[in-house]
Predict the 3D structure of the following.
Amino acid sequence: MPDKNIIIALDGWSGCGKSTLAKAMAKALGYVFVDSGAMYRAITLYFIRNQVDVADHIAVEKALASIQLQFIFNPAKGSSDILLNGENVEVLIREMEVASRVSEVAAIARVRQFAVQQQQRLGEKKGIVMDGRDIGTVVFPQAELKIFMTADKEIRVQRRLKELKETNAAITADLIRENLEQRDYLDANRAESPLRQARDARVLDNSTLNPEQQFTLAMGWVREVIGQAH
Ligand code: DC
């Protein structure tokens, strides 16, 4: 692979496996991987813990001023964990309580501004794979490679069920389906930076692809883009 640092933006619906692909690509390319959803989830966790009223602009502003987010490399996983004011909250932010509130918090303009600013700073040196909802449209509209991921809803539900079952025996497919539908709707219909496919994005429908197949497809695109940049 030619030595060229680019920005890879990976957007798409909830539960499509964006992070899995983004992590694998970052590892293969020696790039930084940033899970932008983790930032919105950590902010949501702070809001829940501190009972921040999302309709109260002053309370939101005050809360954001008290939030420090950092990513720290976890060698055991080979990817980064997110720290909220120094506390590793990587596991806590995946729980259903956060999942059911995060779209509401991520819809707040000031919250997005706060997160996007930090995301853009992380991409200054390029050599980054970032996954989210607005990475190719708002955070890095100049990204050299934009991928929009999609997958059949029932397949997404079953994949998430398998993942969450490991830590939560009470979880059901119905609960997950309800959460995915709600997040898909809120993410795509909010006023601020709704989930949209960028015009220059390549669509990756992984309904019938396994992780290796989607990795091969995406890395082919990277090769194409890097080749063109030479
Ligand atoms: O990728 P995820 O499921 O961990 O994201 C959690 C929520 O955060 C998702 O429902 C929408 C929001 N999000 C966003 O609005 N913009 C991003 N760039 C990433 C996530």
Observations:
- The mean pLDDT is 94.
